[in-house]
Every structure is written in C-alpha cells, then in structure tokens.
Amino acid sequence: MTKPIYVLNGPNLNRLGKREPEIYGYTTLAEVEAMCREAAGKTPVEFHQSNREYELIDWIHEAIDADAAGIIINPAGLTFTSVPIMDALKMFPRPIIELHISNIHRREAIYHNSLMSRVATAVIAGLGPKGYRTAMAAMLELIQENRQ
To answer: Which reaction does this enzyme catalyse, per its entry (predicted)?
Structure first.
C-alpha cells in the first residue's frame, strides 16, 4: 500500500476565500483539498487544518508513526513563532515542503523569518492556492527520487 502524504494547514486557513482575498484569493480550503487529492492521483492524502498549534503537532507525530511518504505544511502564522512545530518536523525523516500562498518575502518584515524553512526540504511561496498543486507534484517527485 502506498504511504500517505500529509497536507497540514495552520491557523485561519479555514477562512480561505473570505479572508483578505487580495492576498489569498477566493479559493476555499475545500477547493484546495480537492486540488491536492486530484494532483496526488492514487497516492492517499491526509488533509487537515487547525487553528490550534497542538493539533498540528499531533498530526506531524501521526505522520511519523504512520511512516508517511511526506508532509506538505502551510503553518500560516505559526511559521514565524512555533518552535514546537519546527521541533516536531525535525523528527520526520522524509521530505517536507513548506508552503505559503503569498510570497512571505514581499510582505511585512514580520513574515520574513520562517522557523520551518530550517527543517523543510523545499519551500514554495507566492503561487497562490495553485501552489498546493505544485507542492503535491514536487512531493511526488521527491518520493520517487527517494525510492530509487
């Protein structure tokens, strides 16, 4: 059986489509999930969103215990503050893609220092919601490379 790819979404991403559409667009989180599942093809996807830091950490632990194939994570505002999420990601032995809908480096200075980038295999930022499709395609390639 193919191992799942975990797609984890942090605080306020449940408001996609309504929250600051000039930055994040009008695509909803449900549409993002459908996009991820379509891009993954036959690879199972565990898709989660939480406004609670501990739930994201629990899902990272679950991915570790499930021997998941990879993690795509948009930690949202926790990107810049959560040492516990970074520490949990350090324990994951496979590819990690950090994802941001906006280009965090073109925004206010508070958004420039990602703690997650230090442990991520790759970072995707600024492609809007379609960045999730790009992240899934990249993850599938990373998984394939690791199998060879």
So the answer is: 3-dehydroquinate = 3-dehydroshikimate + H2O
| pLDDT of the residue at 148 | 66
* pLDDT at position 96: 98
Indicate the residue type of 69: A
pLDDT at 113: 75
Catalytic-labelled residue, pool 6, 24, 48, 105: 24
Annotated binding site for substrate: 74, 87, 101-102
CATH number at residue 86: 3.40.50.9100
24 is a catalytic site residue: yes
Give residue 39's domain range: 5-147
Query: Which position has the higher pLDDT, 141 or 106?
Result: 141
Binding residues: 74, 87, 101-102
The domain total for the chain is 1
Distance (Å, rounded) from C-alpha 31 to C-alpha 24? 13
DSSP, collapsed to helix, strand or coil, labels residue 97 as: strand
Q: How far is CA 143 from CA 8, 51, 68, in A?
A: 18, 28, 10
pLDDT digits (tens, 9 = 90+) for 9-45: 999 999 999 988 888 889 999 999 999 999 999 999 9
